[in-house]
Design goal:
Layout lengths: L1 H18 L3 H21 L3 H26 L14 H23 L3 H5 L6 H5 L4 H12 L1 H22 L11 H5 L15
Helix pairs in contact: 1-2, 2-3, 3-8, 7-8
Pfam families: Oxidored_q3 (PF00499)
Subcellular location: Mitochondrion membrane
Organism: Vischeria sp. CAUP Q 202
């Protein structure tokens, strides 16, 4: 049930990545796609690749996309009227893509009856090691490789601070209201009569 909910959220958010008019919203939906795909991999007990999705894609690439979009100051783009011209080509390429995925899944996940009847499956994780992938990764990262882990965090933090500093607009000249000049205005220097040119 949870797998189906996460799959629906991932498909909807991936559609909204290309359908949203604001590019910042597209990056946020892309982060949601990465998070839901990481959760799906976590449900399939592929913890290492799930953590890599969160660390690499969400932590580095999506943040990079977000700050590049913020630095470029891309305006909200409206959809062109020529959108329907590219729709048949997109549908054709999408059909070929999903047909290839169907062929790959049909060959790999539906074996013949002879292989199904034979007992060839063995859970090597329970037989060889009692530690999960997350426990092993945590032990290695926070004991032997903690220095490199901290260096990687600092390397990701420095460009984030640089992008924030570059996107900020510092105004050193504050706007001041001159009340004395406004009070001293009269009809002669405030009302101008102009002729309408034909």
């Amino acid at each position: 049930m949870l797998f189906n909910i996460l799959s629906i959220i991932m498909v909807l958010s991936s559609i909204l990545v290309i359908r949203s008019e604001n590019s910042v919203h597209s990056v946020f939906f892309l982060v949601l796609v990465f998070l839901t795909s990481a959760l799906i991999l976590f449900l399939l007990e592929i913890e290492f690749i799930s953590l890599l999705f969160i660390l690499v894609y969400v932590g580095a690439i999506a943040v990079l996309f977000l700050f590049v979009v913020m630095m470029l100051d891309i305006k909200i783009s409206m959809f062109d009227k020529d959108f329907m011209i590219y729709l048949p080509l997109g549908l054709f390429l999408g059909f070929i893509f999903f047909f290839e995925i169907y062929l790959a899944l049909n060959q790999n996940f539906f074996p013949s009856a002879n292989i199904v009847n034979s007992n060839i499956y063995m859970n090597w994780i329970l037989s060889v090691d009692i530690f999960s992938n997350i426990e092993t990764l945590g032990q290695l990262l926070y004991t032997y490789y903690f220095f490199y882990f901290l260096i990687a965090g600092i390397i990701l933090l420095i460009p984030m601070i640089g992008a924030i500093v570059l996107t900020l607009n510092f105004s050193f000249k504050p706007k001041v209201q001159h009340e004395f000049a406004q009070i001293l205005r009269n009809k002669r220097n405030s009302v101008y009569i102009t002729e309408k040119f034909k």
